[in-house]
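Severity: low
Component: inverse-folding endpoint
Summary: output formatting inconsistent between runs
Steps to reproduce: submit the following structure tokens with default settings.
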């Protein structure tokens, strides 16, 4: 009698239905990526849950929680059928179907979506920008501006590989899109700097050297294209031509274009640009002459006064610098040239409290300026605030990859460590040398005719033990900047060392000859001694010329050795950095 009820109970237990619950409602509108959680109620063990999209198997899950994602950017806008199927170890299965609507926003069109995404990028809302830009590409898969916004947004998120992918896609779609080339350079530099922050110094130096050179070359293409587009200077475009020439670092071209009109009418608009260009070429006496012409014509403005203060301080004329900077502050204290001139003067007087205060003020409202970051990087390094120095360096070169002053400063910092810290092991010395080489070579790509850059490369060649290469760079530096005293001072040290090397070779040749010295050996000795005397004479000539160019610091000094020459170059050989006149 008990068997029949028991069998009925067992049959009832086996027939219990599988219940599928999904946290998505019938008719729900999906406009953003949606994660759906599925729960299955059954007395058996669930082996698998599947998701079908319009009857096509899309995904499956075997462990709780059973979750599935629907990305509206991967689906067509409109109605969508979602089916969830559950299976148990008892061979049972069940399905549940829900109808939803996809509305990604593509109806707004790619241009409008991209513009909104770009606004989000400028606000730093990178995640939202990515989402909108992806919708724009769904609306038009070939819309290049959307790719550019995605590259910028992923760069802001630190997703460098994705940023690089979209920038390269944009560049491939339009090889003439200079913005893509420029952005790709910035991405590569960010990747290099990210490597730096991991602490792998060897990998970093290689990555940074490559990234910096690429960025410099790409930036050069942009500024050169803008400069070439203007054409030859005329009365109508002369100032536009000069400003483009200054941006492209063609300082001689800028000065030459403005000088004819300046001689007739010495306006500050022309004079400031000419004097700035002359200063950047290391032609300080010519720059002061230009400023003198403006002063005599009573045409000097605040920027011109600031420039005079920098040049007077550079010549160690502190009274002249004080008078000029006081006048500049009185005329226009908020002028960027005036504010940076104050920083330059304070640094050269080793007034660190004034320097840090001035820089803090500049950082509060001009933190994007490469010139501000140059000084922040420099002073932070002096104060052993290396993280702040690194940050300022990175921001400075990202803002302007042609900022060779920053590359020189960073390379000089490496050489200074080698020169001042005794007992460094070979590994650390080699690492610093490799670092200096990377930065100096980037500076050379940015400004190959700079006497300052060529002088830095001269010192580097000496440190590397290549005297012939050092002599070649010394000659090039003097040719590029005949009135640049640091080039002459370093050349004196180089040729003095070469003289010693050649003299030592003559002694070695004499000692190597066993017994009497034959005519051939004597001829070789005589040639080596003659070359040694010629190098010594050249060293004396360069030392005398350096003293004439900078009598206050170099007058009456002996021929320097390399460490002494480097200290002078690092302390007095840096061409002043100030914003270009507007």
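Observed output (run 2 of 3):
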């Amino acid at each position: 009698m008990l068997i029949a009820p028991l069998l009925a109970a067992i049959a009832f237990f086996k027939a219990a239905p599988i219940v599928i619950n999904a946290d998505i409602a019938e008719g729900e509108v999906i406009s953003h990526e949606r994660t759906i959680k599925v729960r299955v109620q059954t007395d058996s063990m669930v082996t698998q849950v599947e998701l079908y999209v319009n009857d096509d198997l899309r995904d499956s899950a075997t462990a709780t929680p059973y979750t599935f994602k629907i990305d509206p950017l991967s689906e067509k806008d409109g109605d969508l059928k979602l089916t969830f199927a559950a299976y148990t170890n008892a061979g049972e299965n069940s399905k549940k179907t829900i109808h939803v609507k996809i509305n990604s926003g593509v109806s707004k069109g790619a241009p409008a979506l991209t513009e909104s995404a770009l606004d989000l990028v400028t606000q730093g809302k990178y995640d939202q920008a990515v989402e909108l830009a992806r919708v724009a590409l769904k609306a038009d898969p070939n819309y290049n501006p959307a790719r550019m916004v995605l590259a910028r947004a992923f760069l802001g998120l630190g997703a460098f590989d994705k940023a690089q992918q979209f920038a390269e896609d944009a560049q491939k779609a339009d090889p003439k899109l200079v913005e893509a080339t420029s952005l790709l350079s910035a991405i590569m530099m960010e990747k290099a700097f990210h490597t730096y922050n991991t602490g792998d110094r060897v990998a970093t130096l290689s990555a940074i050297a490559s990234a910096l050179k690429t960025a410099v070359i790409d930036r050069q293409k942009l500024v050169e294209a803008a400069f070439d587009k203007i054409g030859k200077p005329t009365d109508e475009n002369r100032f536009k031509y000069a400003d483009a020439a200054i941006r492209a670092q063609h300082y001689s071209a800028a000065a030459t274009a403005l000088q004819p009109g300046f001689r007739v009418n010495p306006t500050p608009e022309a004079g400031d640009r000419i004097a700035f260009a002359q200063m950047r070429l290391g032609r300080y006496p010519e720059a002061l002459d230009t400023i003198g012409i403006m002063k005599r014509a009573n045409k000097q403005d605040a920027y011109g006064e600031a420039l005079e203060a920098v040049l007077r301080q550079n010549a160690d004329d502190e009274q002249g610098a004080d008078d000029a900077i006081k006048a500049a502050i009185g005329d226009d204290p908020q002028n960027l040239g005036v504010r940076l001139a104050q920083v330059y003067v304070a640094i050269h007087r080793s007034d660190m409290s004034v320097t840090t205060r001035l820089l803090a003020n500049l950082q509060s409202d001009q933190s994007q300026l490469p010139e501000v970051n140059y000084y922040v990087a420099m002073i932070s390094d002096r104060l052993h605030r290396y993280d702040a120095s690194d940050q300022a360096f990175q921001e400075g070169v990202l803002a302007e990859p042609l900022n060779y002053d920053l590359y020189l400063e960073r390379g000089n910092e490496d050489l200074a460590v080698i020169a001042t810290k005794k007992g460094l092991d070979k590994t650390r010395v080699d690492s610093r040398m490799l670092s200096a080489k990377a930065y100096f070579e980037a500076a050379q790509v940015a400004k190959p005719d700079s006497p300052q850059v060529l002088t830095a490369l001269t010192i580097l060649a000496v440190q590397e033990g290549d005297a012939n290469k050092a002599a070649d760079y010394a000659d090039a530096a003097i040719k590029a900047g005949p009135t640049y005293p640091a080039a002459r001072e370093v050349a004196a040290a180089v040729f003095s060392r070469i003289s010693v090397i050649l003299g030592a070779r003559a002694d070695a040749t004499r000692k190597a000859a066993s017994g009497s010295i034959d005519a051939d050996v004597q001829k070789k000795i005589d040639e080596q001694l003659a070359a040694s005397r010629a190098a010594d004479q050249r060293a004396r000539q360069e030392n005398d010329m350096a003293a004439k160019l900078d009598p206050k610091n170099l007058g009456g000094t002996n021929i320097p050795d390399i460490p002494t020459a480097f200290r002078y170059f690092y302390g007095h050989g840096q061409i002043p950095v100030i914003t270009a006149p507007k």
